[in-house]
Amino acid sequence: MSQSIAVIKGDGIGPEIMEATLRVLDALDCGLDYHFIDAGLSALENHGTLIPKESLETIERFGIALKGPLTTPIGKGFSSINVQMRRHFDLYANVRPAVSFPGTRSRYDDIDMITVRENTEGAYLSDGQEFIDDGNTGISVIKVTRKGSERIVRYAFELAKNNGRKKVTAVHKANIIKTSSGLFLDVAREVAKEYPEIEFQEMIVDNACMQLVMNPHQFDVVVTTNLFGDILSDLCAGLVGGLGLAPGANIGESAAIFEAVHGSAPDIAGKKLANPCALLLAAAQMLDHLGMVEKGTAIRQGIRTVLETRRDMVTPDMGGTGNTDTFADALVELFNA
Prior knowledge:
The protein is α/β, with parallel strands linked by helices. The protein folds into two domains: about 1-95 and about 240-335, 3-Layer(aba) Sandwich (Isopropylmalate Dehydrogenase); about 120-225 and about 230-240, Rossmann fold. It is built from eleven helices and twelve strands. Strand 6 and strand 7 form a beta hairpin.
């Protein structure tokens, strides 16, 4: 039985890495039926909007989307496409694994951690942002709710429980931001009591940044609010070699969108130099979500094998002499062997 998914090719390098990723998924015989939808700059040109209603309806119908990087034009009147989709589908959990792979420029080995970021409230809400005093003062409201805090913390603990993880660290700034961050921490403490088998740690965000740089192996699952999660998840990507190895899942009750979290890199678009690993790893997250865990694991192990044994097929950003297509070729050959 096939599974229908919505596919957004993306802007810039998006179509190249998406083509490579879909070839790998086909080689694994995942039984996926792709429905390509418009979003980003092409949608703006064709429909006058960055994310057409028809595209949103397709994602809603299937409940699953695989997304390449999108470009939000800089300037007034354009809000982030990612933020729009997260709010539209209430994709409250942003899940970002950071795992070490061989042959990267990472300073650490054996990193294996996950950042779980609240995705729909906090500092990124457009409500409550305004300029006053003739534009000389900017005001931004940080809104954190008990409901939002409870469901993201519970998601982190359930993820840890279901994946054999031993520790959850709640990152906050409750010592200074006693209302919004304080509420998040209070709720985290309450939820943690329901999972006595999992170690619970709380850490102030500035200390967490320092500890991640000095001793990242102490972390397992990190759960935090929207702004802190955005920053910390990129820091964690840096621990394993950069955003080229950084996938992301945006999970809600009725929909999930899986993506490469890096940008669209228009400067190298069309040159076949783009590293497809982040989108491949996002596809592996998607397969896990769909219950095809063995196939998701196969993609991760396949990437590891190619990085170790086929340097001639690896993209230049990872020290190889290959390109986007040859990386996919190497994986397809591996799965068809």
